[in-house]
Amino acid sequence: MKEDLNLLWLQSGGCGGCTLSLLNADCSNLFDTLAGIGVRLLWHPSLSEPCGDAARRIFDDCLSGATRLDILCLEGSVLRGPGGSGGFHRNSAGQTMMERIRSLAQVARHTVAVGSCAAFGGITAAGCNPADACGLQFDAEAPGGLLGRDYRSGSGEPVVNIAGCPTHPNWVIETLAAVAADRLDAAALDSFQRPRLYADHLVHHGCTRNEYYEFKASAQKPSDLGCMMEHMGCKGTQAHADCNIRLWNGEGSCTRGGYACIACTDPGFEEPGHPFATTPKFAGIPIALPTDMPKAWFLALASLSKSATPKRVRQNAEADHQVVTPAVKKPRAS
User: Fold this and answer.
1) Helix (H) / strand (E) containing 160
2) Which residues pair with 161 in a beta bridge?
3) Among residues 198, 227, 253, which one ends one of the domains?
4) In a 10 Å sphere around its CB, with 0-12 CB exposed, 13-18 middle and 19+ buried, how is residue 245 labelled?
5) 79-110 pLDDT, tens per residue?
6) What's the whole-number mean pLDDT along residues 165-192?
7) How far is CA 6 from CA 66, 72, 99, 133, in A?
8) Which entry of 25, 30, 176, 314 is 20 to 30 Å from 283 by CA?
9) Cα Dmax for the chain
10) Residues 185, 215: one domain?
């Protein structure tokens, strides 16, 4: 019988939101679910009882090899400041979190970044980044980060970046299940090392506003039902995630709640260069167009779509509820 994999979870520069999201996983008990996929939680700073010396013994046993470290998960960015010392985040014994992460990553069989902060730096790295925050193997979209572009874990694989702010709980559980089953290799990751199990989709897929998108019937204000791409800053046609297919808590997503997608699974999402709820344009045309669509095609299709927009779609797009229902057509006589 295959042994369970030992998982050690660390939290660094972040808000803990990915852990809070994980606790909302679609399961009756998180610990039983992990055990069911063959993962044993050695320690988690928010969910485990050991602290102080008892927790340090767990880390020391992993470093010495007395306890096998199969999966190292980091939530939150690595704080390298000031001056590359990591001194902004250290424990009572003087050891920096940066040192602890680096040393544990050298003995881990698999290394996983949970959330966009751990993957790319995320919110913690925004602005002038005084803490010199970065991800495990990326600094924003540039390969490198704390461990360097050439880092490979004991399995020979790079860091797995479960990007998202926060991550969907099932992204985390399914990724860990794939790791436990030896089914997550480099081919299962995209160019930003995100698991393709969710990153091969777009937020646009399954969006309830797709009829409005197709006819370019756009929302003008936050409460409107129409597509939020043209005016409200929605990046659902570009963001890699399955949020509208794999719903949050079984029934929700940002766009279903009336909020534009801000592409939180992408590096640099935290600093788009414009207000999140605004679509930047040039000559009245959105600068960021749908993934894989040439600009000329988009313009041609948008013009045709707008000219063919049904009255029902056009009116509903700028309302906060359905004001015109679909027509009922009588069946043909046989």
Assistant:
1) strand 160-162
2) 113
3) 198
4) middle
5) 999 999 999 999 888 899 999 999 999 999 99
6) 96
7) 12, 9, 21, 27
8) 314
9) 85
10) no
The C-alpha atoms of residue 306 and residue 292 are separated, in whole angstroms, by: 21
Cα(232)–Cα(234) distance, integer angstroms = 6
For the entire predicted model, the pTM comes to: 0.93
Do residues 159 and 23 both lie within one domain? yes
* CA proximity to 129, closest of 15, 13, 266: 13
Helix (H) or strand (E) holding 22: helix 17-22
Residue 34: inside a domain, yes or no? yes
Verify that 269 and 228 share a domain, yes or no: yes
The answer as to whether 332 is a domain residue is no
279-296 pLDDT, tens digit per residue, is 998 888 888 888 877 778
Helix axes 97-107, 53-64, angle to 10 degrees: 40
202-245 pLDDT tens trace? 999 999 999 999 999 999 999 999 999 999 999 999 999 999 99
Supply the pLDDT for residue 333.
65
